[in-house]
Specification:
Elements lengths: L7 E4 L2 E4 L16 H18 L3 H13 L10 E3 L2 E6 L8 E6 L7 E5 H5 L6 E7 L5 E7 L6 E7 L4 E16 L5 E7 L5 E8 L8 E5 L6 E6 L5 E7 L4 E7 L8 E2 L9 E5 L3 E6 L7 E6 L9 E4 L5 E8 L3 E8 L2 E8 L4 E3 L8 E4 L9 E7 L6 E6 L4 E7 L11 E9 L5 E9 L10 E4 L17 H4 L4 E5 L9 H5 L7 H16 L8 E6 L1 H12 L4 E7 L5 H5 L7 H8 L6 H10 L13 E6 L8 H13 L6 E6 L12 H16 L4
Parallel strand pairs: 32-33, 32-34, 34-35, 35-36, 36-37
Antiparallel strand pairs: 1-2, 3-4, 4-5, 5-6, 7-8, 8-9, 9-10, 10-11, 11-12, 12-13, 14-15, 15-16, 16-17, 18-19, 19-20, 20-21, 22-23, 23-24, 24-25, 26-27, 27-28, 28-29, 30-31, 31-33
Length: 679
């Protein structure tokens, strides 16, 4: 039980009391307060004690899940100019080796980056980016060894395996090389964890003299950086959740001033690429589901944008990539991913895939002059599959199917999608997978996952870890609630800001529909979500606590009101277009307060809950889940288990190694099985 300390703050004439405000270390992002650290350690000790009765089950689950990972996995090689590139895992390694060999020579791989060596001695390791110069001589890469998403960029000479003296701190994103390979562009992270600058580094010069190419003044905007598919332009982008702006620099003129494409206008989003003699743009200026447009190379202003693919209510144009003779688009129709190819005459067609319910998207495609496109495909019963699509022949060639070493037969499982009626009449897609012999008579437990924010869709894809639940008789379902992007931009818009409650209602209504169908009983549903999906978990627990038999809330965004009221936090200004600005807008204050899970906790009974946090998490700060659990402990009237596990050396994504991360999944599953009496 956490200590309660009085703390009050008044906004719009309303005084908020927060007895657990002290769990936020005032020195953040440093966390050094002895009382805070002692409380987090006590919670971790309690977690270990509470999970001790299922330690054997946790280990068994971990070994099961680990046994489904190919110990020496490797990627399908990707050709980029004179070289073929590939990553590999040595047997049972936590991190990858990155290899290459001459594309037209003998395939004798050489290691260009050794993640295990870079990770040695660190509790956490993440490779942020890697980018090889056009001549193949130099590699710019970045690493993070704390989980705080602050990366250090280094440059390696691949000719003699030596490191150049340059070390760029607080870098983020990929380095983009100028055409002459003597300089590269990179992004800089501000003290507030916002990518706000593009700088250019000239090899051999001091980093502190790097030129600032672009700086974003709006504290809510994030800056991006990319190379055009043609490699002829450097693209600088900036934007928030609803507005974007882009600039171009010729790759052969790295000193040139960035040229504006279209001035920012609130609500207008666009993304640009280059296709030799023209620019191609993905824009929502004429339809909320976007259109594809072209512009002549010598005049890219918005007045010259000509529609290539018009926007439609039924089709969500998600993204695209240019090739010399083709444009390949990612679309979504009635919630199902599609790939469309457009030729130079403007003729187009969609690729056919073997299943009715699946997820597909563009894979690694480095070559601009190509007639073959790499795609990544999966379904809820088909493991991750790499296809090469021959555009001229319009045929798919399977290059790799994810291996499940412990054995897997897809015919043992079946998937389907149903529509659940929401209370306001909307139809909520629900993707479902189960073993074919798992009954739908209400006797089986069900695991229901949800997210529903930022327009992000939760794909009906494959999971090797999930098999541990399916093989124990679980039904697994994804509720594609509003706030996500499954059914287009309107689906997203109707789950954010003043419509945010739709996401929560959709999730509850989807669960109730599954109960009404007789497939599961109330109290036998385990639910899970992370980050904004963790906010979803907190809200649906408050709304319908008796429906759930277990809850897993990973790094949950549950203290929504206090976070959106604090513009000193790294991400807050950029989040206002998604949630509202309760500082400036009293209506937004009242709305967020009405659903913020932390603010809406009341005395009563709650289901068993498994909550995680990351001490170095800049996205959902550690104190949000810590405060939530502390307040819930004081208010809950039941004896159900409530645990909080804080990763003391990691961030938003938890532990970093490929096996270490599986341990956390095993712990969650063991908790769910224990809570539902399946041990």
């Amino acid at each position: 039980m956490a200590e309660q300390r009085p703390h009050r703050a008044t906004h719009h004439g309303v005084t908020l009391e927060d007895a657990y405000h002290w769990l936020r270390d005032p020195a953040y992002p440093k966390v050094e307060d002895a009382a805070v650290l002692a409380h987090l350690k006590a919670e971790n000790d309690y977690f270990d004690a509470a999970m001790a009765p299922v330690a054997g089950l946790t280990e068994a689950l971990f070994q099961e899940i680990k046994g489904r990972q190919c110990p020496d996995d490797e990627s399908v090689p990707v050709r980029d100019g004179a070289w073929c590139y590939q990553w590999r895992f040595e047997p049972n390694a936590q991190y990858r080796l990155w290899m290459r060999w001459p594309a037209d020579g003998e395939p004798k791989p050489e290691t260009i980056l050794d993640e295990p060596a870079l990770a040695a001695g660190h509790d956490y390791f993440a490779l942020g980016s890697m980018s090889v110069s056009h001549n193949g001589h130099l590699l710019a890469y970045s690493t993070d060894t704390a989980g705080g998403e602050r990366f250090t960029m280094r440059v390696k000479d691949l000719r003699d395996d030596s490191l150049l003296p340059e070390a760029i701190e607080s870098a983020c994103g990929d380095a983009v090389w100028a055409a002459d390979d003597q300089s590269f562009f990179y992004l800089v992270m501000s003290d507030a964890w916002r990518s706000y600058q593009v700088r250019r580094h000239v090899l051999g010069t001091p980093v502190d003299t790097d030129a600032v190419v672009y700086e974003e003044a709006d504290s809510g905007f994030w800056v991006g950086l990319a190379e055009a598919s043609s490699k002829q332009y450097i693209i600088i982008s900036t934007g928030d959740q609803v507005t974007t702006e882009a600039y171009l620099i010729p790759a052969t003129e790295p000193d040139a001033k960035p040229a504006l494409v279209a001035r920012r206008r609130i609500g207008h989003e666009y993304h640009i690429d280059h296709q030799g003699d023209r620019f191609v743009l993905h824009t929502n200026d004429a339809h909320q589901n976007f259109r594809l447009a072209t512009a002549p190379e010598d005049e890219v202003s918005q007045t010259r944008w000509q529609t290539l693919v018009a926007g439609e209510d039924s089709t969500y144009l998600r993204g695209f990539q240019c090739f010399k003779d083709w444009i390949v688009m990612e679309e979504r129709v009635e919630g199902i991913d599609q790939i469309r190819v457009i030729d130079r005459r403007g003729q187009s067609w969609r690729t056919a895939f073997p299943e009715p319910l699946y997820a597909v998207g563009l894979g690694a495609n480095a070559e601009y002059e190509a007639d073959t496109v790499r795609l990544g495909y999966a379904s809820m019963v088909t493991p991750d599959t790499v296809y090469d699509y021959d555009i001229n022949a319009r045929t798919l060639h399977r290059r790799k199917v994810r291996e499940v070493p412990s054995g897997y037969d897809p015919t043992d499982y079946e998937s389907l999608r149903i529509q659940a009626p929401a209370r306001d009449g909307a139809a909520i897609p629900v993707s479902i997978v189960r073993r074919s012999d798992t009954p739908l008579d209400g006797s089986a437990p069900l695991y229901l996952y949800g997210y529903g924010a930022y327009g992000m869709a939760m794909p009906p894809a494959f999971s090797t870890a999930r098999l541990s639940l399916l093989n124990r008789g679980f039904i697994f379902a994804i509720a594609h609630v509003r706030g996500g992007g499954e059914l287009g931009r309107a689906w997203y818009e109707h789950g954010k800001l003043q419509h945010r409650a739709n996401a929560f209602n959709d999730f509850v209504d989807a669960a109730r529909h599954l109960i009404e169908r007789g497939w599961v009983r109330a109290g036998r549903i385990a639910i899970a979500g992370g980050s904004a999906g963790g906010e979803l978990m907190g809200a649906v627990v408050n709304q319908a606590p008796t429906l759930w038999g277990a809850v897993a809330a990973h790094v949950p965004f549950v203290d929504v009101l206090n976070t959106m009221l604090d513009d000193t936090l790294p991400l807050t200004p950029g989040e206002w277009p998604e949630w509202g600005n309760p500082i400036a807008d009293e209506a937004a204050f009242k709305l967020i307060r009405s659903y913020s899970p932390y603010d809406q906790l009341k005395r009563g009974a709650y289901p068993p809950m498994f909550v995680t946090a990351g001490l170095n998490d800049p996205r959902v700060t550690y104190w949000e889940p810590a405060k939530y659990v502390a307040k819930l402990r004081a208010l809950k009237t039941d004896d159900n288990l409530l645990v909080l596990k804080t990763n003391m050396g990691a961030g938003h994504g938890g532990k970093s190694g490929r096996y270490d991360s599986l341990e956390e999944t095993a712990q969650e599953y063991a908790f769910v099985l224990m809570a539902l009496g399946k041990v």
